[in-house]
Protein backbone atom coordinates (compact mmCIF):
# COMPACT_ATOMS: atom_id res chain seq x y z
CA UNK A 1 0.00 0.00 0.00
CA UNK A 2 1.36 3.39 -0.97
CA UNK A 3 1.02 6.30 1.39
CA UNK A 4 0.62 9.84 0.24
CA UNK A 5 2.94 12.44 1.67
CA UNK A 6 2.74 16.16 1.52
CA UNK A 7 5.59 18.55 2.20
CA UNK A 8 4.80 22.13 3.14
CA UNK A 9 7.27 24.95 3.10
CA UNK A 10 6.50 28.20 4.93
CA UNK A 11 8.32 31.24 3.68
CA UNK A 12 5.46 33.64 4.35
CA UNK A 13 6.37 34.94 7.79
CA UNK A 14 9.73 36.13 6.49
CA UNK A 15 8.44 37.75 3.34
CA UNK A 16 6.09 40.45 4.63
CA UNK A 17 8.21 43.38 3.35
CA UNK A 18 10.01 41.70 0.47
CA UNK A 19 8.89 42.37 -3.07
CA UNK A 20 11.01 41.18 -5.95
CA UNK A 21 12.07 37.68 -6.86
CA UNK A 22 15.70 38.63 -6.20
CA UNK A 23 14.85 39.89 -2.71
CA UNK A 24 12.94 36.68 -2.04
CA UNK A 25 15.93 34.63 -3.14
CA UNK A 26 18.45 36.58 -1.06
CA UNK A 27 16.45 36.89 2.14
CA UNK A 28 14.17 33.89 2.27
CA UNK A 29 15.24 31.12 -0.06
CA UNK A 30 18.94 30.88 0.80
CA UNK A 31 18.37 28.79 3.98
CA UNK A 32 16.16 26.40 2.00
CA UNK A 33 18.47 25.86 -0.96
CA UNK A 34 18.84 22.13 -0.31
CA UNK A 35 15.08 21.66 -0.58
CA UNK A 36 14.79 23.93 -3.61
CA UNK A 37 17.65 22.29 -5.48
CA UNK A 38 15.65 19.07 -5.56
CA UNK A 39 12.27 20.70 -6.14
CA UNK A 40 10.84 20.28 -9.62
CA UNK A 41 7.19 21.16 -9.14
CA UNK A 42 5.08 22.84 -6.49
CA UNK A 43 1.60 24.02 -5.57
CA UNK A 44 1.20 27.46 -4.00
CA UNK A 45 -1.40 27.84 -1.24
CA UNK A 46 -2.68 31.40 -1.51
CA UNK A 47 -3.86 33.06 -4.72
CA UNK A 48 -3.09 36.67 -3.88
CA UNK A 49 -0.16 39.03 -4.30
CA UNK A 50 2.27 36.96 -2.21
CA UNK A 51 1.37 33.81 -4.13
CA UNK A 52 2.06 35.65 -7.37
CA UNK A 53 5.49 36.69 -6.07
CA UNK A 54 6.29 33.05 -5.31
CA UNK A 55 4.98 32.07 -8.74
CA UNK A 56 7.38 34.56 -10.35
CA UNK A 57 10.29 33.30 -8.24
CA UNK A 58 9.63 29.63 -8.97
CA UNK A 59 9.16 30.33 -12.68
CA UNK A 60 12.52 32.11 -12.82
CA UNK A 61 14.12 29.23 -10.90
CA UNK A 62 12.79 26.65 -13.37
CA UNK A 63 10.39 25.11 -10.84
CA UNK A 64 7.03 24.24 -12.35
CA UNK A 65 4.01 25.66 -10.52
CA UNK A 66 1.27 23.05 -10.91
CA UNK A 67 -1.44 25.33 -9.57
CA UNK A 68 -2.66 27.52 -6.77
CA UNK A 69 -4.78 26.43 -3.80
CA UNK A 70 -7.20 28.78 -2.11
CA UNK A 71 -10.02 28.38 0.39
CA UNK A 72 -12.09 31.15 -1.20
CA UNK A 73 -14.82 29.42 -3.26
CA UNK A 74 -15.10 32.51 -5.48
CA UNK A 75 -11.50 32.00 -6.63
CA UNK A 76 -11.64 28.24 -7.16
CA UNK A 77 -11.73 27.02 -10.76
CA UNK A 78 -10.49 30.43 -11.91
CA UNK A 79 -6.99 31.11 -13.22
CA UNK A 80 -4.27 33.10 -11.50
CA UNK A 81 -0.85 33.67 -13.02
CA UNK A 82 -1.83 31.26 -15.78
CA UNK A 83 -2.53 28.41 -13.32
CA UNK A 84 -5.79 26.97 -12.13
CA UNK A 85 -6.92 27.76 -8.58
CA UNK A 86 -7.93 24.60 -6.75
CA UNK A 87 -9.67 23.61 -3.55
CA UNK A 88 -7.29 21.64 -1.30
CA UNK A 89 -9.56 18.61 -1.65
CA UNK A 90 -8.80 18.58 -5.39
CA UNK A 91 -5.29 17.43 -4.51
CA UNK A 92 -6.37 14.29 -2.70
CA UNK A 93 -6.37 12.40 -6.00
CA UNK A 94 -2.96 13.66 -7.08
CA UNK A 95 0.27 11.73 -7.09
CA UNK A 96 1.85 10.34 -3.96
CA UNK A 97 4.19 13.20 -3.02
CA UNK A 98 3.37 16.85 -3.56
CA UNK A 99 5.00 19.99 -2.27
CA UNK A 100 2.87 22.91 -1.15
CA UNK A 101 4.35 26.32 -0.44
CA UNK A 102 2.16 28.39 1.87
CA UNK A 103 1.96 31.96 0.61
CA UNK A 104 -0.14 33.44 3.38
CA UNK A 105 0.89 35.51 6.34
CA UNK A 106 -2.42 35.96 8.10
CA UNK A 107 -3.87 32.45 7.76
CA UNK A 108 -0.70 30.43 8.27
CA UNK A 109 -1.88 28.55 11.36
CA UNK A 110 -5.26 27.72 9.84
CA UNK A 111 -3.69 26.48 6.61
CA UNK A 112 -1.16 24.33 8.49
CA UNK A 113 -4.00 22.74 10.49
CA UNK A 114 -6.02 22.18 7.35
CA UNK A 115 -3.11 20.42 5.64
CA UNK A 116 -2.43 18.24 8.68
CA UNK A 117 -6.03 16.99 8.53
CA UNK A 118 -5.57 15.64 5.01
Q: How would you sum up this structure, described in words?
A:
By secondary structure, this protein is of the alpha/beta class. It is built from four helices and six strands; from the N terminus they run βααβαββββα. A hairpin with a 2-residue loop joins strand 4 and strand 5 (about 85). The two termini are about 15 Å apart. The model has no long low-confidence stretch (mean pLDDT about 80).
Percent helix, as a range, is 25-40%
Low-confidence stretches: none
Provide mean pLDDT, rounded.
80
Quaternary structure? single chain
Largest sheet: 6 strands, mixed
The helix/strand class is alpha/beta
User: What value does the Rg take, in angstroms?
Assistant: 14 Å
Task: Spell out the blueprint of helices and strands.
Elements (H helix, E strand, L loop, with lengths): L4 E6 L10 H9 L3 H5 L3 E5 L3 H12 L3 E6 L9 E2 L2 E4 L10 E6 L5 H9 L2
Parallel strand pairs: 1-6, 2-3, 2-6, 3-5
Antiparallel strand pairs: 4-5
Helix pairs in contact: 1-3
Q: What features would you highlight for this structure?
A:
alpha/beta; 118 residues; 4 helices; globular; Rossmann fold; six-stranded mixed beta sheet
Amino acid sequence: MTTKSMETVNFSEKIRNIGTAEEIKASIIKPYEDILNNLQEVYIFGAKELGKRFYDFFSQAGIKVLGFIDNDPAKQNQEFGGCKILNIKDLLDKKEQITIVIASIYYLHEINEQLKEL
